Amino acid sequence: MTMASYYTLEAGATVRASDGTEVGKVEHVLADSAADIFDGLVIDVRTGPGGHRFVDAPQVAQMDEDGGVTLTLSEREVEQLPEPAENPATMSAEPADLDRSELHEKLRRAWEVISGKG
C-alpha cells in the first residue's frame, strides 16, 4: 500500500483497527492546513451504539492512497475512544493512563501548539 497525506482523506473513508477490521468511517479530519498540523480524526463508529469518536493523531498508523485509514488501536480500544468535545484538541492525562513516553510526547505537542512552534 502507498501512504497518503491527511489532505487526501475524505468523509466516508474506511477506518480500520490495527488488525484490519473495519471499525467505522471518517466523519471529519481535524487539522490546521495553514500550519500543516494533523491533529486527528472524528470517526463514526459502526460497533456498539455507534456515534462519533475522537482519534488523536498518534493513534493513526497510516493513511492509504485508497482513502482508508488504519489505526494503532484494536477494535476494543476504538470502542472506548472518547466522543469529540467542542475542542477535541484539549488534552488531559492521568499518570495511570499513559506511560512516560506517551505523556512526554503529548506535552511536547501541546507546548509546540501553545508556543506557536507547531
Beta-strand percent range? 25-35%
Quaternary structure annotation: single chain
Indicate the mean pLDDT: 81
Tell me the count of domains: 1
Could you tell me the CATH topology label: SH3 type barrels
CATH level-4 homologous superfamily: PRC-barrel domain
Number of helices: 2
Low-confidence regions: none
Strands of the widest sheet, in order across it, are: 4-3-2-1-6-5
Overall shape: globular
Q: What is the terminal separation in angstroms? A: 29 Å
Structural class based on helices, strands and sheet pairing: alpha+beta
User: How much helix is in the residues?
Assistant: 10-25%
Whole-angstrom Rg: 14 Å
Order of helices and strands: EEEEEEHH
Highest-level CATH class: Mainly Beta
Largest sheet: 6 strands, mixed
Q: Which CATH-level-2 architecture? A: Roll
- Based on DSSP secondary structure assignment, what is the total number of beta strands? 6
Region (Disordered): 78-102
Organism: Solirubrobacter deserti
Protein name: DUF2171 domain-containing protein
InterPro entries: Bac_photo_RC_H_C, PRC_barrel-like_sf
Q: Your description of this structure?
A:
With 118 residues, the protein is an alpha+beta fold. The chain has a single domain, classed as SH3 type barrels (Roll). The protein is 18% helix and 31% strand. It is built from two helices and six strands, in the order E-E-E-E-E-E-H-H. The protein has helices at residues 75-79, 100-115, and strands at residues 14-16, 22-32, 37-45, 51-56, 60-63, 69-71. Strands 4-3-2-1-6-5 form a six-stranded mixed beta sheet. The longest helix has 16 residues, at 100-115. It is globular, with a radius of gyration of 14 Å. The mean pLDDT is 81.
